[in-house]
Write a structure and sequence with these properties.
Shape of chain A: globular
Number of strands of chain A: 10
Order of helices and strands of chain A: EEEEEHHHHHEEHHHHHHEEEHHHH
Order of helices and strands of chain D: HHHHHHHHHHHH
Radius of gyration of chain D: 20 Å
Number of helices of chain D: 12
CATH superfamily of chain A: Cytochrome-c3 Hydrogenase, chain B
Oligomer: heterotetramer
Number of domains of chain D: 1
Largest sheet of chain D: none
Number of strands of chain D: 0
Shape of chain D: globular
Strand content of chain A: 15-25%
Distance between the termini of chain A: 34 Å
CATH topology of chain A: Cytochrome-c3 Hydrogenase, chain B
Strand content of chain D: under 5%
Distance between the termini of chain D: 47 Å
Chain lengths: 373, 150, 150, 314
C-alpha cells in the first residue's frame, strides 16, 4: 500500500475484490482493483474459474463427438462455434458441402449473431444502470430467435445443429415465413433502441470517451470483432477472408470513430441491422438440395495441420487442428476472441472510476466460457 | 464569450432533455403492449416436434448394433446382450441421465430409430441413484410424464 | 502475398530459415526468434497482429506455432519453433506484441514452456498452486477426471 | 391530547398502508413497462405480495457482520426510517386534515428529511464492508449537494405564498395552481430532479448501485433491518411527492371530489412519474452527478430565484 503523504493528510489505497461473484462481471471473472477513493489505480484480472480443459477433452473424442462441446464454448452464440469447428474439420478433410447447407449455415450463424448482440446490448445497458428495462426488451426479441432455432434443431441454447459435411436437419416447412416476420418485427425494435438508449444523454455521458481503445493498441492486443471495428479498423473476416457464401451476399461493415464504449455499443447495434439484411438475402437465395449428412462413419483425416478462423459475434474464433491419421485429433487449439479482448481491460481502466470499469467490461462483451475454455 | 458558453450549455440541456423524453415515450408505449411472459406452472410452452428431451427406447426395434454407445460423447449409454437360441437379445440397457448432454447424436445415428428423445424436460431428482435409468422397463418416466406434457 | 512469397522475402534476410513441407510454416531456430519477429513486425510485411500461439507436444520435442497476421496487408504466416525435450525455454515476445503476454502465460500454464523475461509468468487458467502441466501427453490424472462408471 | 393520539395512529396506519401499496404498485408498473406481469400469485394480481414479503423479512435471520461497528450498525435503520415518518406531521392531506399545522411547515420537513443521510452513512460505515463504505460516502456527497437546489426551488414557492406554513401555501394556490407561472414551472423541474437525488432513486441511485457496489449501503442488512431501509425509502418517496403536490400542483384544491382524494391522486400521479423515470434511464456516474448539481442545477435555481424576486417586486 503506498501512502501518499501530503502534509498531514494520509490517504491510503485500498484493495477491493470485484470477485468471481459480482453482478456485472459477465460470468466468473475476478478483478482485483487497487482503489484510491473511487479512482482505480491498478486492476489485475484472474480468470480460469470456468476452465474445463476443452482441449484435453478433444484429444479423447472423435471429430464428430466434439461438436456438442463447441456449443459450450461461447454458449450464447453456439451456432457460430459449431460452424467454426465443423468448417475447420471440413478443411482438414477437404470436404465439399452442398450449397443449401452453406446457405442454411449462414442463416443460422447470422440469426445467432443477432441473438448474441442482443444479449451484449441488454447487459451493457443493465451495467450502466438502466435497470432491466432494455435487458427485458432484448430478451423478448431474442426469445423469438430461440423459438426459430427450437423449431430448426430442437434445442434452445446448445444447438449441436451442424455436422461435418452439412447440417443435422433440413429447415422445417413454414420456417421462412416465421423468419421473415421476425426480420420485420426486429427492424422496428432496433429503431426503438436508438430512441431509448443510443442518444440518451445519461447513456452518452456514461459511455462516451470511456475506455478509449486506440487503433494500434487494439491490433497490438489482437482484439477482434466489434471491439476492433469500433476502434476504426475496417476488418471483418466475412468480407476480407470470405467463407461459405458471404461473398455472394451484399452487406456493409459498421466502423466506429474513436473506439470508446459507446462506439462498441453502436457497432453492435448496426451489426444487428446488417445481419438482418444478410438473413433476408440468404433466405431469398436458398437453393434446393439435401443438406443433411449421416454421422455413423468415423472420419480418419490424414496427418496434417490446419488453422481456420471465422467471424464470431465476439471476435475471430480460430481452430488449430493437428491430426495424426487416427479418429481422434492429436491436438486441437481453440483461439478464443474473448481471451484477447479481456487482456485489454487492465490497460483501458487506469485512472477511471468503478462505474467505468463496469461500463468497459460490458462494452467489451466478454464471455467467460470462451475465455477459460 | 460567457454568453456563447451559456447558449451552448442551454442547447445541450434542451437536446439532452429531448432525448430523455424520447426514452420515456418508448417505455410508455411498451407499457400498453400486453405482457408476453408465461405463468409457468399454469401455462407451459408446448415443445416443438424436434425437441430433445430425455432419451427413450423402443426395445423391440433395437438390433444391438452399439452405434449409439459408440457415438455418445459422454459415454452415458451402456448395453449388455446375451445369445438366446441363435438370436441376440438385450439383457441390459442403462442410461445415465446425469451425464447426458442432450446432443441428440444417438437419436440421429440409430439405424432403426429404436432410441429417440421424448418431450420430457422437467427432470429434477432428489437422489443420484434415480439418474441411472434402465431403459428397458416401460414404467421409467411415469412420474415425470404427466408434469412435462401438459 | 502467398505464404511462399513471404517465405522467400524472409529467406533472403535470414538464411537459416527452413520451410515445413505440407503446412508451409516457416521453421526458425530458437535463438533468432526475437530478431526475426522484430524484422517481421517493422518490415513492409507489417505483421502487426500475433493472432495465437499453439504448443504441440510431439514425441521428444515441443513445437510452438506462432500464427501472425497483418491487418493492413491482408496476409498471414505461421512461424514454428522446435524446442528439444530438455530445455523448453524461448524468448518472450511480450514487448513486441502485447497479446503475447496472456497467450504465453497460457502456453506456460498448460505446457510448461518457460518464456524468458516475460512481464509476469504465472499460471492463467489453472489455480496458481496447480501441480503439473495438463495438456502434456504424459499428464493423466485418473483420480481428477473419473471415467463415468456404469 | 386524545386528538393528537388519534391523529398519530391514523398517520402511522396511513404510512404503513401507503408503503405497502407503493411497493406493490412499483413492481406492477415496472413489470408492465418491461412487458411482463409482475407478482400474480399471491392474491388477485399479487395484491398480498407486500404482506408476504413483510412476513418473509420478519422470519429472515438477522445476520450481523463479525467486525461490524455494533452500535452504529444497529442504529442505522432507525435513522433511515424515523425522519420520513416524522416529516408526516406537516403534510396537509385536506382542508383541516393536517396532523400539526406548523407555521414553519416546509422548513421543518426539509430539516427532518436531511437527517436520513446520516442513517445511510452510518449503515455504510457500520457494516465494515468496502462496498457499503463506498455506497455510504457516495450518498453523503450526493444528498448534501442536492439539498441546495431543492431548497432554492422551495424558496421561490414560499416567496409567492409569503408564508412557510403548508396550509397557507395551499390556500395561496386556490385560484390557480403554482405550476402555471413560468418561473414556477422551472422551479418544479429543478425540484423534481433534486428530489429524485434526495431519495436515491432513478438516474441518481448511486449509493446502492446494483451493478457496481453489489447493494451499496444495505449490503450487510437482512431481515427486518433491510425492511426498515425499504420502508424508509418508500415513505421518503411519498413525502417528496406530497411536497411537490402541495408546492406546485395546488395541494388539495380540486373542483368536485373531496380534498383528500384530490391530494392523494395528485401525489400518486407524481409517484408514477418517478417510477416511470426510474425504469427508463441509466444511472449517472458519481462525478457527473455532482457536477450536474453544482454547475447546472444550483445556478438555474439561483437565476430562477432572482426572476421570481424581480417579478414579485415589479
Amino acid at each position: 500500500m503506498n501512502t501518499s503523504q501530503t502534509k498531514d493528510i494520509c490517504t491510503e489505497e485500498f484493495l477491493i475484490n470485484m470477485g468471481p461473484q459480482h453482478p456485472s462481471t459477465h460470468g466468473v471473472l475476478s478483478l482485483e482493483l487497487k482503489l484510491d477513493g473511487e479512482m482505480i489505480r491498478d486492476c489485475t484480472a484472474h480468470i480460469g474459474y470456468l476452465h474445463r480443459s476443452m482441449e484435453k477433452l478433444a484429444e479423447n473424442r472423435t471429430y464428430t463427438q466434439f461438436i456438442p462441446y463447441t456449443d459450450r464454448l461461447d454458449y450464447v452464440a453456439s451456432m457460430n462455434n459449431n460452424m467454426g469447428y465443423v468448417m475447420a474439420v471440413e478443411k482438414l478433410l477437404n470436404l465439399e458441402i452442398s450449397d443449401r447447407a452453406k446457405y442454411i449455415r449462414v442463416i443460422a450463424a447470422e440469426l445467432n449473431r443477432i441473438a448474441s448482440h442482443l444479449i451484449a446490448i441488454g447487459t451493457f445497458a443493465q451495467d450502466l444502470g438502466a435497470f432491466a428495462t432494455p435487458l427485458f426488451y432484448c430478451f423478448r426479441e431474442r426469445e423469438k430467435i430461440i423459438d426459430i432455432f427450437d423449431q430448426i434443431c430442437g434445442n434452445r441454447l446448445t444447438y449441436n445443429y451442424m455436422r461435418i459435411g452439412g447440417v443435422q436437419f433440413d429447415l422445417p416447412k413454414g420456417i421462412d415465413e416465421k423468419i421473415k416476420k421476425f426480420i420485420k418485427y426486429m427492424r422496428s425494435k432496433v429503431d426503438d433502441y436508438d430512441w431509448l438508449l443510443t442518444y440518451n444523454t445519461i447513456f452518452l455521458a456514461r459511455s462516451k470517451h470511456i475506455g478509449l481503445l486506440p487503433k494500434d493498441l487494439a491490433i497490438n492486443y489482437s482484439v477482434s470483432g466489434p471491439n476492433l471495428r469500433a476502434s476504426g479498423v475496417k476488418w471483418d473476416l466475412r468480407k476480407d477472408e470470405p467463407y461459405l457464401v458471404y461473398e455472394k451476399l451484399e452487406f456493409d461493415i459498421p466502423v466506429g470513430e474513436n473506439g470508446d464504449s459507446w462506439d462498441r455499443y453502436k457497432v453492435r447495434l448496426e451489426e444487428i441491422r446488417q445481419s438482418l439484411k444478410i438473413v433476408e438475402q440468404a433466405l431469398g437465395a436458398l437453393p434446393e438440395g439435401d443438406p443433411t449428412v449421416k454421422i455413423g462413419r468415423i472420419h480418419k483425416p490424414s496427418p496434417s495441420e490446419i488453422y481456420l478462423r471465422t467471424e464470431n459475434p465476439r471476435g475471430e474464433l480460430g481452430f488449430f487442428i493437428i491430426s495424426d491419421g487416427s479418429a481422434y485429433p492429436y491436438r486441437l487449439k481453440i483461439r478464443s476472441p474473448s481471451f484477447s479482448n479481456l487482456a485489454v481491460l487492465p490497460e483501458l481502466v487506469k485512472g477511471l472510476k468503478i462505474a467505468d470499469i463496469v461500463c468497459i467490461l460490458g462494452s467489451l462483451d466478454i464471455l467467460m466460457g470462451e475465455t477459460d475454455r | 464569450m460567457v454568453i456563447i458558453k451559456i447558449i451552448k450549455l442551454s442547447k445541450d440541456l434542451v437536446i439532452g432533455a429531448w432525448s430523455l423524453i424520447k426514452g420515456l415515450v418508448i417505455t410508455l408505449k411498451n407499457c400498453f403492449i400486453p405482457a408476453i411472459t408465461l405463468q409457468y406452472p399454469a401455462q407451459k410452452q408446448p415443445m416443438t416436434d424436434r425437441f430433445r428431451g430425455l432419451v427413450d427406447l423402443h426395445p423391440e426395434k433395437c438390433i444391438i448394433c452399439y452405434q449409439c454407445v459408440k457415438i455418445c460423447p459422454v459415454a452415458c449409454l451402456a448395453i449388455a446382450h446375451k445369445q438366446e437360441n441363435n438370436k441376440k437379445v438385450i439383457s441390459e440397457f442403462k442410461y445415465n441421465m446425469e451425464l447426458c448432454c442432450f446432443c441428440g447424436m444417438c437419436q440421429q445415428v440409430c439405424p432403426t430409430s429404436a432410441i429417440y428423445m421424448n418431450k420430457i424436460y422437467e427432470i429434477s431428482v432428489y437422489d443420484r441413484d434415480k439418474t441411472h435409468i434402465n431403459l428397458l422397463n416401460p414404467g421409467k418416466y411415469i412420474e415425470w410424464l404427466n408434469t412435462s406434457i401438459k | 502475398m502467398r505464404t511462399n512469397e513471404i517465405f522467400m522475402a524472409i529467406k533472403t534476410d535470414f538464411p537459416e530459415v527452413r520451410q515445413e513441407e505440407e503446412t508451409g510454416a516457416v521453421i526458425i531456430p530458437k535463438e533468432s526468434l526475437l530478431k526475426i519477429t522484430r524484422y517481421l513486425k517493422n518490415h513492409r510485411l507489417a505483421f502487426d497482429n500475433l493472432h495465437c500461439i499453439t504448443a504441440i507436444d510431439r514425441t521428444g520435442r515441443v513445437e510452438l506455432a506462432y500464427t501472425l497476421y497483418s491487418i493492413s496487408e491482408h496476409h498471414g504466416i505461421t512461424l514454428k519453433i522446435y524446442l528439444t525435450a530438455g530445455e523448453e525455454n524461448v524468448a518472450s515476445l511480450a514487448e513486441l506484441w502485447k497479446s503475447a503476454n496472456w497467450l504465453e502465460r497460457e502456453v506456460y500454464d498448460l505446457f510448461g514452456v518457460i518464456f524468458l523475461n516475460h512481464p509476469d509468468l504465472r499460471r492463467i487458467l489453472n489455480p496458481y498452486d496447480w501441480k503439473g502441466h495438463p495438456l502434456r501427453k504424459s499428464y493423466s490424472h485418473p483420480e481428477v477426471s473419473i471415467k463415468p462408471r456404469l | 391530547m386524545l386528538m393528537m393520539l388519534i391523529a398519530g395512529i391514523a398517520v402511522l396506519a396511513f404510512i404503513s398502508a401507503s408503503a405497502m401499496f407503493l411497493i406493490w404498485w412499483e413492481r406492477k408498473v415496472s413489470a408492465h413497462i418491461q412487458s411482463r406481469f409482475g407478482p400474480m400469485r399471491v392474491g388477485w394480481h399479487g395484491v398480498l405480495q407486500p404482506i408476504a414479503d413483510a412476513v418473509k423479512l420478519l422470519l429472515k435471520e438477522d445476520i450481523r457482520p463479525a467486525e461490524a461497528d455494533k452500535l452504529v450498525w444497529w442504529l442505522a435503520p432507525f435513522f433511515a426510517v424515523v425522519p420520513p415518518v416524522m416529516a408526516f406531521a406537516a403534510i396537509p392531506f385536506g382542508k383541516s386534515l393536517i396532523p400539526k399545522d406548523l407555521n414553519v411547515g416546509i422548513l421543518y420537513i426539509m430539516a427532518i428529511s436531511s437527517v436520513c443521510v446520516i442513517g445511510i452513512f452510518m449503515a455504510g460505515w457500520g457494516s465494515n464492508n468496502k462496498y457499503s463504505l463506498l455506497g455510504g460516502m457516495r450518498s453523503a456527497a450526493q444528498i448534501v449537494s442536492y439539498e441546495i437546489p431543492m431548497i432554492l426551488s422551495m424558496i421561490t414557492v414560499v416567496m409567492h405564498a409569503n408564508s412557510l406554513s403548508m396550509q397557507k401555501i395551499v390556500e395561496a394556490q386556490s385560484r390557480h395552481w403554482n405550476i402555471l407561472h413560468p418561473n414556477m414551472l422551472l422551479a418544479a423541474l429543478v425540484y423534481t430532479i433534486a428530489a429524485t437525488a434526495e431519495v436515491n432513486r432513478a438516474p441518481f441511485d448511486i449509493p446502492e448501485a446494483e451493478s457496481e457496489l453489489v447493494a451499496g449501503f444495505h449490503t450487510e442488512y437482512s431481515g427486518m433491518k433491510f425492511a426498515m431501509f425499504f420502508i424508509g425509502e418508500y415513505t421518503n418517496l411519498f413525502i417528496i411527492a406530497a411536497i411537490s403536490t402541495t408546492l406546485f400542483f395546488g395541494g388539495w384544491h380540486g373542483p368536485f371530489l373531496p380534498p383528500v382524494v384530490w391530494f392523494l391522486s395528485k401525489t400518486y400521479l407524481c409517484i408514477f412519474i418517478w417510477m416511470w423515470v426510474r425504469w427508463t434511464f441509466p444511472r449517472a456516474r458519481v462525478d457527473q452527478l455532482m457536477a450536474f448539481a453544482w454547475k447546472v442545477l444550483t445556478p438555474i435555481a439561483f437565476v430562477n430565484l432572482a426572476i421570481t424576486g424581480w417579478l414579485l417586486l415589479k
